[in-house]
Amino acid sequence: IMEVAARLLTALPLHLDLTMAQHLLIGLVEVSSGVAGLIGESALNERVSMAAFMLGWAGLSVHCQVLSFLADSDLSSFSYLLGKVLHGLLSALFTAGLMHLFPLSQPVSSYLSVQAENLTLLEINRSLALATASAWLLWLGFSVVSILAIRASKKRGGKFIKCAL
What we know:
- This protein is mainly alpha-helical.
- It contains 8 helices and no strands.
- The longest helix is centred in the C-terminal third of the chain and has 33 residues, at about 125-155.
- The radius of gyration is 21 Å and the shape is flat.
């Protein structure tokens, strides 16, 4: 069934070869197997964009779990699934756009390994100072955004969930 469905996908104007269509179908069912199967000979930007779609979509196995919780609520299953399709499509589009703006000539791991190596060259006191300053700035930024969101919610008269900052 998967091979027939993959052949049908290659007939669509998605510019997929048979292998990528099979990986896409696997990713539609189960995200981790689909992403793991993307290692191959296809172009890096195609594989990264497809991985972004799969991660945004999340896979049918995840959706079955989520829909079992939605069954007892007033939330719409249709709007949830439509949102996940849009999430996958937008993830793939944004990723493809970013890959076009910032082309990668090597796998992402090679860029990260260079950054990790550069961090190891820093002395420990400087590394700790940078990490501490970064953590505080992120915390401060999230706190400001949270406070602004709470104030905006109060002005609209809406309800909001109280959380510890």
